[in-house]
């Protein structure tokens, strides 16, 4: 049980994919879960509950007795994925259980319709999952998601040396549900907000994804800054109050741009800069790390 099961990062398309845009997402292997055995501890109750769900909903797709037996012998999942950061921790759990315990029938079903298969697995955690997070971990590739539910695997161009993509840790977990509800309710009930999203946020997201996939880094950076400005000015709950000053300063002096990474309101923010040393100084109050992409 030496394998690791990665988190995921949503690079572009947060929220807007719910109302018509594409989204670009990648595995995030520096955050992962993995199997460990701790025989001195009581069996993991959450994992046993998940096993019961699988035995009911996937009667022939998993080796249920072996899973129950291993959990009672102290096997459990440890994780470096922070909870409440939108990194797909439950998706990584799904893949870990699938990798270890799926039967030949389960693997065949997953290979045939992976998104639907993993959505049904992840429904245990979210009630109505899209299956996207475990799908990204399962494929191990970048994917472009479409608002109608289908997806394409994509090859990202080599990241240019003159640009730095980084994560800023707000050190504040958040809940996705209320933020998604905030966005969808405003979009569906406020015509002016809907028009702004369509004309600014969705347009910039589409341009950013097209530019990213084409290796047009200046075009991608322009779209990234447009998204950053929209989120700062139009989505107050999604930008932490204590981060607003630095976010604004980065845009004003054109040193860096920040955007929410997932639902917003905490967790990670994604940043882009051509001057990483200066950006580190300007964001010294926040833990930041360079994001390595192919």
Descriptive report:
The protein is built from 11 helices and 9 strands. The two termini are 27 Å apart. Strands 1, 2, 3, 4 and 5 form a 5-stranded antiparallel beta sheet that branches. Strands 7-8-6-9 form a 4-stranded antiparallel beta sheet. It is globular and about 60 Å long. The model has no long low-confidence stretch (mean pLDDT 95). It folds into 2 domains: 4-154, Ribosomal Protein S5, domain 2; 164-290, Alpha-Beta Plaits (2-Layer Sandwich). Helix 1 (45-57) packs antiparallel against helix 2, helix 3 packs across helix 6 (132-139) and helix 8 (191-214) packs antiparallel against helix 9. By secondary structure, the protein is an alpha+beta fold. A hairpin with a 7-residue loop joins strand 7 (256-260) and strand 8 (268-273). It has helices at residues 45-57, 64-72, 89-101, 104-112, 114-126, 132-139, 176-189, 191-214, 217-234, 241-253, 276-282, and strands at 4-12, 23-37, 75-79, 142-145, 151-154, 164-169, 256-260, 268-273, 288-290. The relative contact order is 0.15.
Task: Find the structural class using helix and strand composition.
Answer: alpha+beta
The major beta sheet can be summarized as: 5 strands, antiparallel
Work out the count of structural domains: 2
- Strand proportion, as a percent range, falls in 15-25%
Number of β-strand runs: 9
Distance between the termini: 27 Å
Query: CATH class of the largest domain, anyone?
Result: Alpha Beta
What is the tally of helical segments? 11
Radius of gyration: 20 Å
> Which segments are poorly predicted (pLDDT under 50) over 5 or more consecutive residues?
none
């Amino acid at each position: 049980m030496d394998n690791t099961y990665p988190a995921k990062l949503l690079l572009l398309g947060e929220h807007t994919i719910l109302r018509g845009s594409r989204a670009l997402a990648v595995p995030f292997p520096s955050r992962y879960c993995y199997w460990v055995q701790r025989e001195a501890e009581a069996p993991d109750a959450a994992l046993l509950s998940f096993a019961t769900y699988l035995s009911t909903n996937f009667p022939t797709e998993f080796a249920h007795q072996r899973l129950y037996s291993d959990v009672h012998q102290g096997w459990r999942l440890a994780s470096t994925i922070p909870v409440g950061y939108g990194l797909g921790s439950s998706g990584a759990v799904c893949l870990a259980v699938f990798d270890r315990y799926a039967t030949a029938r389960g693997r065949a079903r997953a290979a045939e319709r992976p998104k639907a298969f993993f959505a049904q697995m992840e429904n245990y955690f979210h009630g109505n999952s899209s299956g996207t997070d475990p799908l990204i971990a399962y494929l191990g590739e970048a994917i472009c998601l479409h608002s109608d539910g289908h997806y394409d695997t994509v090859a990202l161009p080599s990241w240019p040396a003159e640009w730095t993509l980084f994560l800023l840790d707000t050190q504040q977990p958040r809940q996705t549900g209320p933020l998604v509800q905030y966005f969808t309710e405003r979009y569906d009930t406020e015509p002016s907000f809907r028009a702004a999203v369509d004309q600014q946020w969705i347009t910039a997201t589409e341009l950013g994804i097209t530019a990213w996939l084409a290796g047009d880094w200046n075009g991608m950076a322009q779209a990234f800054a447009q998204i950053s400005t929209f989120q700062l000015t139009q989505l107050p709950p999604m930008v932490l109050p204590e981060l607003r000053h630095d976010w604004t300063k980065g845009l004003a002096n054109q040193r860096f741009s920040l955007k929410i990474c997932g639902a917003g309101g905490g967790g990670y923010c994604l940043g882009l800069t051509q001057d990483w040393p200066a950006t580190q100084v300007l964001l010294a109050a926040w833990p930041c790390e360079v994001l390595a992409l192919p």
